[in-house]
C-alpha cells in the first residue's frame, strides 16, 4: 500500500510527456480503487488506468476520460481483484446475525415486503426510463465528433406580418461566397438539399424507396460518419453514393459493396464509395439511408450550384476553434448584403450561426429570438415526473416503515432488556432497510430489461440498455444508500431510543408528529397522482381537438404515390386513363408537392386594391386536372380547372385563408399578377375558392395557399378508390396497371389517412407516456395506501371490537376508518388543481389550435382519485369492521 500511496502523491498528478495539462485522474476514484484492490495489482492497474486516462483526454475530452476512469475502477470490483478484509470475529457475527434477522422479517411479513419492494421497484424503473430518455435528449447529435464546432447558417427576415421569421433554406450562391470569404474562421463548409428526398435505390430486382441526404462531397467527413467499408471520401465522383449498413444489407447482403453500382430512380448508375454504421436515432441525420452528391439534383450542372434566386439548400459550417458565432454571423451578413436582390433588402435579411449543440433543444424562434422549445419543456417536465414518481415510491417506503415500526416497540424493549446496545439496534434497522432497497433495485433492473423495448417503440427512441455505463451504476449505488438511510432513519433513531420498561408495558403510543408526517406524505403522493391524471386527460383532449378540425379534403379512401421513374412524366396521362378504365378508382390527380406538406412558398403576387404594406408569401402548389376530385377538395365559390378550356392555364384557385389575407370579398374573377424573380410576370385569374386544407401541423392555423394548373411538372399521384369495391381488390388491380406501365419502379403506395395521422405522432407519444407514468404513479400510491390502511386498521383492532360490542354498524365503522383518508384526498385535490391548471395552461398556450381546460377535467380527476382511494382503503376497513369482536378483544 505504501507504493500505491506514493503513486497518488507523486505520479498520478503529473501527465506523461505530451499529455493533457488540463486535467488529472479523479482522486476519489483512485482512493476507492486502492481501498479494495489487492496490493500486488495496485501499481500495474494504476499505471494502465493513467495511461488510458491521458490517451482519452487527448483524443476526446477530460470529462470523457474521467467518466471512463470511473467505469474502469468499478469494473475491477470482481473477485480476482478484491483485497481480503479482516474484521473482528464479533463484528462478522453481528453482521451475519442482523442479516438473518432482517431476512426472516421479510419472509414473515410477505404482504408488507411485496408492497415495499414492488412499489419501490416501480418507482425506480420509472426514474431509470425517464433518466435514460432525458440523457438521450441531452446528448442529441453528440455522435458527431465535430459536435462542438459544427453550426448551421440560418437567415432572419421580416415575415410580412410585422414580425420576424427564422428560416433554414438558403441559396447556393450564399454558400460559395461564405466558403471563399472566411477561410481562417471556417475550416469546412458543405451544402445540403433542404427538402427531404426519398428516391428509389435499386440493385437488380431489389428496389427500395429510401430517405437520403444529397450534399457536397466533404459533408461525410465533417459529420465524421463511422465507416464499415470504404471511407468518408467516397463521394469524390459525381455519380457516387455512401450506403448505410442497413441499406447495404438489403441490397447486397453481407458482402462488401464498395466499387459496385446501384440505380438511382432506375436511370442513374451510382458507384458505391463506402458503407457507414447506421446513425443513432438521436442524430439530426438519423433518417439517412444513404448520402450522395448534391450535384445530382442540379442535373450535374456546376453553374446551377451558384445561383442567388432559389432558396433550396441548407448550409453547414465547421468552425475553427474559439471562433465567436455572433461576430462571424455579423461578418457573413455584411458580406452577403452586397448581393441582395430587392426582396432580400425589403425583408431586412440577416444571418445567424446556430451551433449543433442547440439544434434539438433550442431550435424554436419567436420574432427572431430563440425561445424555450417544446422539446426542452418536455425534458424538464418528464424529469420532474421521474423525480416525483421516485419520491412516491420512497414516501411509500417511509410511510410503511414508520407505521410498522410502532408495532415493533415490544421487540425493541425485549432486545434492550437482553443487553442489546442502541448502535446494534440502529444497525439492525438499517440492515432491514438496505435489504428491501437492494431487492427493489434488483427487481427494477429486471423490469427495465423487460420494458425498454416497449419504451423505445412508444417514445420513438433507440435507447440501449445502460449495463456498461459507469454513471448508471454509480447513480444506482447512490440511490440505494440514500433510500436506505432515509427510510431506515426513523425506526433506527426513534425506536432505538425507547426505554425498555415503557415499551414492554405497551404504553408506547405514536405521537402526533408521526401521524402528521404520514398525512403530509399521503397528501403529497395523491397531489402528484391527481395532477398527472389531469395532465393525461388534457393531452388527450388536445389531440382530439386537432383531430376534430375540418381537414378540407378527404384522406379516407385515397392512396398516394411518388413513382420513382424518369418515365413517369411521359406515362402520366396513360397511367391515369388505364387506372380509371379498371373501374377501381373514381378519380386520379397529380401535384408537385404532397397534399400533407407545406412545401413551396413564393412571393411576388400583386392585385388591384392590394394593401401597399402587404408583404406576405403564399404556399403555392401545382396540380393537374382531376386533382380536386381525387383529394375531394370542397369549393365554397367558383369552379375547378376544366380540361376543355384552354384559357384555364392562366387561372388559379385560392383557399379561404388566402382570400382573407388578400381582403377579397368576391375573389372569383380577380386578376392576380405573379412576378417571381426567376421568370417573367404572368397575369392569372381566380376561378375558384376552396376550404382551407390542413397541410402542415393540425395544431397550427392553416396557410394562405394558391394552386396553379400544370400537367407536366407534377411528381405525386393521388388515386380516389371506388368505395363500392373492396380496398384489397382495388389496390391489386391498380398495382397491376402500374407495374405494366412502370415496371422499373416499385408500387409503394401509402394510404393518405395514414400520412395525415402521422402528424399526431408526437402528441400521441406524449399521451401514451403520460398514461403509463400516471398509471404507475396511481398504482404506487394505492400500494402504499393499502399497506398503510392495513396497519392503521390493525392498530385500531380493539377499538373497533369495543365499538361493535356497543352497537356500531358496519357502515359506521367503515366511515370511521375511511373518512381520514377521504379528507386527505380532498386536500390533495385542492393543491393539485391550481398547480396543474397553471402548468397546463402554459403548455396549451404554445399551440395555435388548442383545447380548453374544462371544469369537468378537474372534477373527473378529483373524483377518480377519491374513488380509487376509497376502493383501496375499503378492503381493509370492511375487513376490520366485519371481524368477530370476541376475537379482537380476546387478549383483554
Strand-helix topology:
Blueprint: H1 2-11, H2 27-36, H3 39-59, H4 62-75, H5 89-108, H6 110-138, E1 150-158, E2 164-167, H7 172-181, E3 186-193, E4 200-203, E5 206-209, E6 212-215, H8 219-222, E7 227-230, E8 240-244, H9 245-252, E9 261-264, E10 268-276, E11 290-293, E12 313-319, H10 325-337, H11 342-347, E13 350-355, E14 364-366, E15 369-371, H12 374-405, H13 409-417, H14 422-459, H15 470-494, H16 500-505, H17 512-547, E16 558-561, H18 568-581, E17 585-591, E18 601-602, E19 605-607, E20 618-623, H19 627-631, E21 635-638, E22 651-655, H20 656-661, E23 671-674, E24 682-690, E25 705-709, E26 716-721, H21 727-741, E27 750-751, H22 752-757, H23 761-795, H24 797-805, H25 810-844, H26 855-881, H27 885-889
Parallel strand pairs: 6-11, 8-10, 20-25, 22-24
Antiparallel strand pairs: 1-2, 1-12, 1-13, 3-12, 4-5, 4-9, 7-10, 8-11, 9-10, 14-15, 16-26, 16-27, 17-26, 18-20, 19-23, 21-24, 22-25, 23-24
Could you explain the architecture of this structure?
It is a single chain. This protein is α+β, with helices and mostly antiparallel strands. Helices cover 50% and strands 15% of the residues. The protein contains 27 helices and 27 strands. Strands 4, 5, 6, 7, 8, 9, 10 and 11 form an 8-stranded mixed sheet that branches. A hairpin with a 2-residue loop joins strand 14 and strand 15. Helix 2 packs parallel to helix 4, helix 5 crosses helix 14 and helix 25 runs antiparallel to helix 26. The chain is globular and about 105 Å long. It starts with a helix and ends with a helix. The N terminus is likely disordered.
Amino acid at each position: 500500500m505504501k507504493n500505491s500511496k506514493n503513486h497518488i502523491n507523486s505520479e498520478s498528478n503529473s501527465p506523461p510527456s505530451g499529455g493533457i495539462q488540463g486535467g488529472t485522474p479523479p482522486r476519489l476514484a483512485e482512493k476507492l480503487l486502492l481501498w479494495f484492490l489487492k496490493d500486488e495489482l495496485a501499481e500495474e492497474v494504476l499505471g494502465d488506468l493513467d495511461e488510458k486516462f491521458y490517451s482519452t483526454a487527448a483524443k476526446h475530452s477530460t470529462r470523457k476520460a474521467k467518466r471512463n476512469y470511473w467505469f474502469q475502477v468499478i469494473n475491477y470490483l470482481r473477485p480476482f481483484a478484491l483485497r481480503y478484509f479482516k474484521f473482528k470475529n464479533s463484528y462478522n457475527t453481528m453482521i451475519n446475525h442482523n442479516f438473518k434477522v432482517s431476512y426472516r422479517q421479510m419472509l414473515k411479513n410477505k404482504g408488507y415486503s411485496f408492497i415495499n419492494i414492488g412499489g419501490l421497484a416501480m418507482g425506480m424503473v420509472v426514474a431509470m426510463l425517464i433518466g435514460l430518455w432525458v440523457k438521450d435528449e441531452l446528448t442529441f447529435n453528440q455522435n458527431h465528433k465535430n459536435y462542438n464546432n459544427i453550426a448551421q447558417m440560418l437567415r432572419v427576415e421580416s415575415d410580412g406580418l410585422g414580425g420576424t421569421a427564422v428560416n433554414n433554406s438558403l441559396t447556393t450562391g450564399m454558400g460559395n461566397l461564405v466558403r471563399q470569404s472566411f477561410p481562417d474562421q471556417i475550416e469546412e463548409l458543405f451544402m445540403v438539399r433542404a427538402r427531404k428526398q426519398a428516391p428509389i435505390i435499386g440493385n437488380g430486382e431489389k428496389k427500395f424507396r429510401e430517405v437520403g441526404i444529397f450534399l457536397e462531397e466533404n459533408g461525410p467527413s465533417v459529420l465524421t460518419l463511422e465507416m464499415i467499408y470504404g471511407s468518408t471520401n467516397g463521394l469524390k465522383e459525381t455519380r457516387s453514393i455512401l450506403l448505410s449498413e442497413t441499406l447495404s444489407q438489403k441490397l447486397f447482403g453481407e458482402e462488401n459493396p464498395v466499387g459496385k453500382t446501384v440505380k438511382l430512380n432506375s436511370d442513374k448508375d451510382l458507384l458505391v464509395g463506402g458503407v457507414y454504421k447506421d446513425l443513432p436515432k438521436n442524430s439530426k441525420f438519423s433518417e439517412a439511408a444513404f448520402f450522395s452528391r448534391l450535384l445530382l439534383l442540379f442535373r450535374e450542372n456546376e453553374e446551377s450550384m451558384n445561383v442567388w434566386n432559389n432558396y433550396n439548400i441548407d448550409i453547414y459550417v465547421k468552425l475553427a476553434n474559439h471562433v465567436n458565432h455572433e461576430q462571424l454571423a455579423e461578418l457573413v451578413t455584411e458580406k452577403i448584403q452586397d448581393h441582395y436582390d430587392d426582396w432580400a433588402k425589403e425583408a431586412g435579411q440577416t444571418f445567424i450561426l446556430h451551433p449543433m449543440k442547440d439544434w434539438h433543444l433550442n431550435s424554436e424562434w419567436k420574432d427572431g429570438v430563440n425561445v424555450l422549445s417544446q422539446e426542452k419543456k418536455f425534458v424538464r417536465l418528464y424529469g420532474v415526473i421521474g423525480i416525483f414518481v421516485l419520491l412516491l415510491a420512497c414516501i411509500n417506503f417511509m410511510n410503511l416503515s414508520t407505521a410498522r415500526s410502532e408495532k415493533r416497540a415490544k421487540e425493541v424493549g425485549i432486545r434492550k432488556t437482553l443487553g442489546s446496545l442502541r448502535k446494534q439496534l440502529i444497525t439492525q434497522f438499517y440492515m432491514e432497510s438496505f435489504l428491501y432497497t437492494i431487492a427493489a433495485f434488483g427487481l427494477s433492473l429486471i423490469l427495465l430489461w423487460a420494458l425498454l423495448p416497449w419504451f423505445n417503440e412508444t417514445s420513438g427512441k433507440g435507447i440501449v440498455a445502460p449495463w456498461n455505463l459507469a454513471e448508471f451504476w454509480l447513480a444506482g449505488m447512490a440511490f440505494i444508500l440514500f433510500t436506505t438511510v432515509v427510510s431506515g432513519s426513523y425506526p433506527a433513531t426513534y425506536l432505538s431510543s425507547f426505554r425498555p420498561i415503557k415499551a414492554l408495558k405497551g404504553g408506547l403510543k405514536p405521537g402526533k408528529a408521526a401521524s402528521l408526517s404520514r398525512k403530509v406524505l399521503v397528501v403529497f403522493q395523491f397531489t402528484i397522482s391527481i395532477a398527472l391524471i389531469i395532465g393525461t386527460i388534457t393531452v388527450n383532449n388536445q389531440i382530439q381537438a386537432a383531430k376534430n378540425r375540418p381537414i378540407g379534403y378527404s384522406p379516407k379512401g385515397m392512396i398516394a404515390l411518388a413513382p420513382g421513374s424518369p418515365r413517369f412524366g411521359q406515362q402520366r396521362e396513360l397511367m391515369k386513363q388505364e387506372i380509371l378504365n379498371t373501374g377501381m378508382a373514381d378519380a386520379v390527380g397529380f401535384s408537385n408537392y404532397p397534399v400533407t406538406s407545406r412545401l413551396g412558398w413564393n412571393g411576388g403576387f400583386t392585385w388591384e386594391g392590394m394593401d401597399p404594406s402587404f408583404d406576405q408569401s403564399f404556399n403555392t402548389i401545382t396540380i393537374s386536372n382531376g386533382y380536386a376530385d381525387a383529394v375531394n377538395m370542397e369549393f365554397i365559390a367558383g369552379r375547378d380547372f376544366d380540361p376543355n378550356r384552354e384559357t384555364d392555364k392562366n387561372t388559379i384557385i385560392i383557399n379561404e385563408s388566402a382570400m382573407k389575407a388578400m381582403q377579397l370579398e368576391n375573389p372569383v374573377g380577380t386578376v392576380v399578377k405573379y412576378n417571381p424573380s426567376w421568370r417573367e410576370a404572368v397575369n392569372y385569374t381566380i376561378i375558384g375558392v376552396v376550404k382551407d386544407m390542413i397541410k402542415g401541423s393540425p395544431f397550427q392555423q392553416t396557410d394562405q395557399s394558391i394552386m396553379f394548373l400544370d400537367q407536366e411538372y407534377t411528381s405525386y399521384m393521388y388515386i380516389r378508390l371506388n368505395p363500392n369495391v373492396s380496398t384489397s381488390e382495388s389496390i391489386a388491380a391498380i398495382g397491376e396497371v402500374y407495374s405494366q406501365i412502370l415496371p422499373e419502379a416499385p408500387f409503394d403506395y401509402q394510404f393518405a389517412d395514414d400520412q395525415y395521422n402521422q402528424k399526431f405522432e408526437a402528441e400521441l407519444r406524449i399521451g401514451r407516456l403520460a398514461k403509463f407514468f400516471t398509471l404507475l404513479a396511481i398504482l404506487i400510491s394505492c400500494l402504499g395506501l393499502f399497506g398503510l390502511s392495513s396497519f392503521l386498521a390493525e392498530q385500531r383492532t380493539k377499538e373497533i371490537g369495543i365499538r361493535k360490542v356497543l352497537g356500531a354498524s358496519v357502515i359506521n365503522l367503515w366511515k370511521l376508518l375511511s373518512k381520514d383518508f377521504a379528507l386527505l384526498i380532498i386536500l390533495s385535490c385542492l393543491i393539485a388543481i391550481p398547480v396543474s391548471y397553471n402548468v397546463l395552461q402554459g403548455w396549451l398556450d404554445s399551440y395555435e389550435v388548442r383545447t380548453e381546460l374544462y371544469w369537468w377535467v378537474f372534477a373527473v380527476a378529483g373524483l377518480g382519485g377519491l374513488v380509487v382511494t376509497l376502493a383501496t382503503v375499503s378492503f381493509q376497513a370492511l375487513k376490520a369492521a366485519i371481524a368477530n369482536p370476541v376475537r379482537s378483544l380476546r387478549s383483554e
